[in-house]
Design brief:
Tumour Suppressor Smad4, alpha+beta, elongated, six-stranded antiparallel beta sheet, 2 domains, Rossmann fold, EC 2.7.1.23
């Protein structure tokens, strides 16, 4: 039996589940654990991945929240057996480097997406470059995002972006309410692509950048690339694996 550390969101349901599970299986300190069991929804799972990135422990989630795309079903029984036969899904996050008006550069990781959003009623005016080559001289929009395959079914899908198969080595670039170019609906990029957004009028048309939940305001430039150093592993029941669920999302009506 692996040494398990249990973490839970602050909801009453998740806390009750944690109490039941720890009384049955114990609760290892995080520095001694071999696996983390996260109890909550997808938002809590993302926070768990960021919080425990330094140790890179595998994380097995159980759904006790509103959205549970990254979670398994919640059952108290047979947890060690479920963990031992779980299938791994290795997530490689995006690295965002955002330069703000004050001259600082802030770095953050995103397992789902990096999104740029206008801060006022004024539309954002952005220049878009890929690997140092300008692809759009001016994108006028409410915002734009770059999503991983794991994040392609979240905000990206809500913004009418494509669902990317897990393991496809692709990224989705999706505009949010684009005005010009009127017919541009985004792009599918190789995961090795380095994306740069330049804010063309940052003082009149301020823009913020968010990596998962880490927001940087009043930016002037953002670069995004897949991290080459960091990974996290999610564990899924074989009948509930992430690759199949992302595939099935394409057939949801």
């Amino acid at each position: 039996m692996k040494r398990i550390a249990f973490v839970a969101s602050q909801t009453e349901e998740a806390q009750a589940a944690r109490a039941a599970l720890t009384s049955r299986y114990g609760d290892a300190p995080i520095e001694e654990a071999e696996v983390v069991v996260a109890l909550g929804g997808d938002g809590f799972m993302l926070r768990t991945l960021h919080r425990h990135l330094a140790r890179a422990l595998p994380v097995y989630g159980m759904k006790l929240g509103t959205v549970g795309f990254l979670m398994n079903q919640h059952h108290v029984a047979d947890l060690p057996e479920r963990i031992s036969r779980a299938q791994p899904a290795v997530l490689r996050p995006l690295l965002m480097e955002a330069a703000n008006e004050a001259g600082s550069t802030i770095s953050a990781l995103a397992f789902n997406e990096v999104s740029l959003l206008r801060q006022t009623k004024q539309a954002a005016h952005l220049r878009v470059s890929l690997n140092g080559v300008v692809k759009l001289d001016e994108l006028i929009c409410d915002g734009v995002l770059v999503a991983t395959p794991a994040g392609s079914t979240a905000y990206n899908l809500s913004a009418h972006g494509p669902i990317l198969p897990f393991g496809s080595q692709l990224l989705a670039m999706t505009p949010i309410s684009p005005f010009r170019p009127r017919r541009w609906r985004g792009a599918i990029l190789p995961a090795v692509t380095e994306v740069k957004f330049e804010i063309l009028d940052p003082y009149k048309r301020p823009v913020s950048a968010t990596a998962d939940s880490h927001e940087v305001r009043d930016i002037v430039e953002v670069s995004i690339r897949e991290s080459r150093e960091r990974t996290m592993t999610l564990l899924f029941d074989p009948e509930h694996n992430l690759e199949e669920r992302i595939l099935n999302e394409q057939f949801e009506l």
